[in-house]
Amino acid sequence: MIRAAVMTAIIILNYAFQTTLLPSAAVLGVTPDTGLILIVSYAIMRGDAEGAVFGFFSGLLFDLTGGGPIGIFALLGMAAGYVCGKPFKNFFRDNFALPLAVVPVAAMLYQFAFYFTHMLFRGKTEFWFYFGSIMFPKTIYTLVLAVPLYLLLYAVNGMIEKFEIPRRNFFNDDM
Fold this sequence. Notes:
Elements: H1 2-21, H2 34-46, H3 48-66, H4 72-85, H5 97-119, H6 127-144, H7 146-164
């Protein structure tokens, strides 16, 4: 229960940060996708199912407030959380180089899917312009913030696990 409350707070705080402060820190007209960093980081730490749920609700918040079609960001976030959490169940979460390898790939795939769902269907077919002016700079900018946000989420996850472990009842004394 505490994990759900903390993760909900992180999703809301990230949304507030990404929509209020980050636009003033835009470089070349793009901002980093901190939501995607958190989705990928959480999926690496907690696995595919929890990563998909975290990604769904993170994307749903952007869908509900963005004014566009509802469900696109939720679907993309859920897919990113699931795919990024699937192969990394047996990796050490202490490996801080892992987000550096996964975040740029996830960011490019996420931006590519966004292009197809938002731009191409609206008749904007200038893919190379979009790639050079938005996709690539956004991926690089997102990569710059990947490790600091991973470290922050790693610390929060560690505190939650310290709180949860004593409350788990692996063995009943009633047997």
